[in-house]
Fold this protein.
Amino acid sequence: MLFKTNSFKQYYQFKDLAVLVFIIKDQQILLINKLRGLGKGKINGPGGKVEPHESFEQAAIRETLEEVHLSVTNLQESAKLGFFFKDGYSLYVRVFITTNFTGTAQASPEAIPFWQEIQTIPYDAMWQDDVLWLPEILAGNFVEGLFWFQEDNMLSHQISINP
Ligand code: 6OG
């Protein structure tokens, strides 16, 4: 799949497409302990890969329901991120934020959800890129970013805020 970023004026090819969803309630954010897949053992938001013939938004709604049993609406697209791994894998991720949801967060085989104060997001337990863009989108900014990884280690990055 080819994607062009507004800010980097270049096309990039990605192996997989995925989504992340951050639900905000009062001054809290819904995070998960990821139990399987890429980033297993890390803290992240609900999300996962986009299936064929599904839009990014449909994937965001489906993954949030599957992983934490919450129905989300009014998703705001907040970031477009590209990840390139040394082993050749690459992933394009669209990130959504919402304050609109119904249900009570419940664990699934993929995730253990928990509400965290936004002021104390545990960045040390998350992917290394998160601290670079999550505070920006929580502040209402739109982010485009490209990140190069060797396994869990970020080697370099390019970020554009409100491109
Ligand atoms: P599944 O394996 O669950 O899809 N993901 C990342 N998230 C962040 N914040 N940083 C990264 O840096 C990530 N790499 C992948 C996107 C993978 C899920 O993991 C997220 C998807 O929600 C490298 O199907």
Residues 23 and 98 are 5 Å apart (CA to CA). Helices lie at 56-68, 130-138.
